[in-house]
Amino acid sequence: MEQEPLQSGKRILRDAAVPRGGRLLLVLLPIVLISGIVSIGWLLFVLPTTSLSTYLVPVIVGALAVESLLVALLVFIVFPGYIKFVTLASGAITQTAGKSERYVHALTGSALGYWEYDVQRGELFLSGSMMSMLGYPDRDKVESIDFWWQNTHSEDVEGLKRTIEYNLDKRAEPYSITYRMRRSNGEYVWIEAKGKAILDQSGSPTMMSGVSQDITNVMRVQEVLESRTLELEEATNKIEQEVQNVRKFQKAVDSSTEAVSITTPDGAIVYVNPAWMTLNGYSEAEVLGRNHRILKSEDTKSDVYVALWEKINSGYPFHTEDIINKRKDASIYQAELSIAPIQEGNQTLFYVSLCQDITLRKEVDRAKTEFVSLASHQLRTPLSAIRWYSEMLLSKYVGELNDKQRQYVKEIYAGNLRMVELVNALLNVSRIDLGTFAVEPEPVSLVEICESVILELTPQIIERKQTVEKIFTGAPATFKADPKLIRIVFQNFLSNSVKYTQPEGHIIAEIRTIEENLYIRVSDNGYGIPKHQQPKIFEKLFRADNVRQKDTEGTGLGMYIVKAIVESSGGKIWFESDENKGTTFHVTLPLVGMSKKSGMRGLN
Amino acid sequence: MTESKQKKVLVLEDERQLAMAVRDALVERNFQPIVVQTITDGLTQLESLGGVDVIWLDHYLLGTGSGLDFVVKVKNNPKWQQIPIFVVSNTASDGNVRAYIQLGVNSYYTKADYNIMQIIDDIEYSLQNEVGEIN
């Protein structure tokens, strides 16, 4: 097909053979005509002057006859052949040109550039469209092959040379290659070139020709597509990873021994794990879409639910051990429940709750606490004996002790007092933990209680040369409180301040009302509580490192008891402390005072 | 000071160690202690002695009944109801302590929290006031 215009032109010319003898006649015709004219001149002007003038007429007639014959031959035999040949040649040329034009149109229409590489001369023919592709004027041009190498992108030039060499060596044909060429403005254009070597009759390559196409846009689209594909792959991988994670979490949650459930913000259950179903006796189908109220029992105190909703509505997680849940079979269990609202921005997406049956644990806890309580009670009898006998030994009724004996008995007596204090504290803690401590409120003077505690501590305060500042001007005359409990609060704050403040330190005790609250503050400029230990200050048996070294006698139970007293009275307790700068404890209690609470025992 | 002027203290305490300490301390402070371990013995002693000056009472005692039962009996007896009673116990619950106070005992002490002499001081003080009132 590519050869079509050439082949058809050649065929036409072959069919229209040049007329025979035509060339000879064409050469002879001017010679004959010129020699005829010269002969006629000679006959007319020279012959009459010669002796042959008598043959003038016959000679002229003869010459004219010969001329006429030659002209006739030319006109009637040679010219028609040539006219026919010319007509056919013209047709062939028109046809060839027409077909070539189609290819030119096709090339330009398809934005293809045509090129030819003369291998032997090292010359490169570049079509106008090829030049235009490279940003040069749209005209055919002949360049050195070096022009091409110089403008090929440095990363592509080696590959291009290699491909052409392969093609010329007939190892690959035809070839097709994509590479980058520098345009006249310095930018690079992506080119897709196709070509093949043209061989001579001996099979050696003489030329190479082909077409090139600007595929920059295609490459750009391809690049964009590749990057999109990459992004898609990454996204797919991420999704796959997320799916794996979700599966992992799903499996973890499914196999968790804690009962896990997920609810929508309006309370509809959307997920329960197998442990949840085992714990509560419901199947998944029975609970999906339903509310957690199905577990609600009459035994849970209503204030637990109030606190629960208050917390989670404010976006905070809630934790309690005071929920009594009811199973499907109506049996109940004590639950440890944690609910966390899962939020996106300000919107709650769902609530995740973890629940555990702690009935047994609570029973064990209770048994342990009861044991501590009982053991502490039992300890009191021998402690009383030690106290009384050592007291009597010290009291000279049974005779004088020598100094060393006296000192030792004093140590026994002091050690015993410490033990009594510890046992009392343990009993208080067990009463708090069992919820059996009683609150017996009556109108009391907080100032008097505080003053009496300070009076008790006066020997130590004097010994340590400390000063106590009392700010009681805003204190209420009376406050409804259990005097024993409020005394424990002051006793712990103030004795801690005295113990844990250096000699000549300063202690402040303040009582006043702030709005609807009673406010108590005990402040000192003492040793302070190390920052990292501050979160543990209200835990049972906690003692800060820095004071444990200075005073070995504390029980570590005082602040736990104080917190329980304050919070059971609807109050709040908090503190600020800096090591070696001091500590300030704050307490607020509702001005209405403490509420009565019946129990086995008050706190000592 | 003669034997007859010594105040009689009926001590109801079932712990041997503590009972001995109380007895010795009371003797040291010139009291005449009579120590028993059960309510029954306590009541018997009250009957046989024709009353005492003071009663030192523990809550949990050997045998049946607690210190509360003993107080009820003493307070219901017109001969004995004026005898001052000092409850000295380690184990009474708040409810029991309230019951003791309501029944009209003079004071309640947790043994481990008080020196024995503090309690005897209070007993003496109470007896002196009583004497003062009589006078």
Task: Explain this structure.
The complex is a heterodimer of chains A (604) and B (135). Chain A is built from 16 helices and 18 strands. Chain A has helices spanning 4-15, 22-45, 56-109, 128-133, 145-151, 157-168, 216-254, 274-280, 284-287, 302-313, 359-394, 403-434, 446-463, 483-499, 545-550, 558-568, and strands at 112-118, 123-126, 141-144, 175-182, 188-199, 205-214, 259-263, 269-272, 318-326, 332-344, 347-357, 442-444, 467-471, 479-481, 506-514, 517-524, 572-578, 582-590. In chain A, strand 10 and strand 11 form a beta hairpin. The longest helix of chain A has 54 residues, at 56-109. Chain B is α/β, with parallel strands linked by helices and 135 residues long. Chain B contains five helices and five strands, in the order E-H-E-H-E-H-E-H-E-H. Chain B has a five-stranded parallel sheet with strand order 2-1-3-4-5, with helices on both faces. The model of chain B has no long low-confidence stretch (mean pLDDT 88). The chains are: A alpha+beta (604), B alpha/beta (135). The A-B interface holds A 377, 380-385, 387-389, 391-392, 395, 397-398, 420, 423-424, 438, 440, 599-602, 604 and B 15, 17-18, 21-22, 24-25, 28, 90-91, 93-95, 110-113, 115-117.
